[in-house]
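FIELD: query
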Amino acid sequence: MKKALRAYAPASIGNVSLGFDVLGAALAPINGSRLGDEVDICAADAFSLTVKGPFAHKLPGDVDSNIVTKCYYYFCEQMELTGRAVSPVALTLHKNLPIGSGLGSSASSIVAAFAALNDYFDAPFSEDTLLHMMGELEGQISGSIHYDNVAPCYQGGMTLMTGAKEPVTLSLPLNPNWYYAICYSGISVSTAQARDILPKQVDMATALTFGRQLGVFVHALHTENFDLAASVMKDVIAEPYRKSLLPGFDDARAFSESEGALAFGISGSGPTVFAVCNSSEQAARIARYLNDNYIQNQDGFSHVCQIPKSGTVVSPLTEHSDA
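FIELD: result
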């Protein structure tokens, strides 16, 4: 009997403030809970997709328009192009991440789907090939191909995009003593909307600042000069424009800085924000403030996270697995 599997793909921070479209980081709550989407796969007579989870109702009711369905058919196309056989499967998407949250919600669904399919069909595609496939499908939602969510979601850690066909990413060193207070406000900001608000060009001074900060950051991580790394975690490209979409952003930043946060910024396109902290206690204080003051409705939440070394996990699905 063919195996049944579940793929878990974690939430992620796109850009990490200073690395617009070229830097991303996976997220893992320190309390051990999972923050990410899951996709189950098992044998079937015909393809089907079932959608469950706390944010399933936010997705289109037509499963043919669901990005996981598109992942399945794109995977089948690529298998056929390489002369490999595909059999029908039943997929279940557990939609645990809010849509338009800035936590890599669409990336999480896409990565979990491709990881489940690739493992189920005995790993026909390499990591870089899968990343290209994931980026292609992510681009259908956001309007442009970028890897700052799909890459860390799939690979874990903090990843730097190379712009090359392979390797697609480079893994950056992590500071095990950094904690991230993250808060989703509950409102939705589409990636396309958040990109439209940005200028089409940046001036020379801004471009030089962006390049300098990213270079210093990468060097500082490799030399374990983490104070220097934190000092350049400032978004000069997107935040000046995108913060207008986020009610309470300036107050949240001011409180975080008053508590000694090393950096504060927008996760991806927002509205989720994050504060980089030197201790779990400091992160917990900031998370409590954000929970009480930044959240706009009942969908919002906050977590204290770290960046996990591992990303997507595929494991056997048993009869005892949660529904």
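FIELD: remark
Residues 135 and 145 are 5 Å apart (CA to CA).
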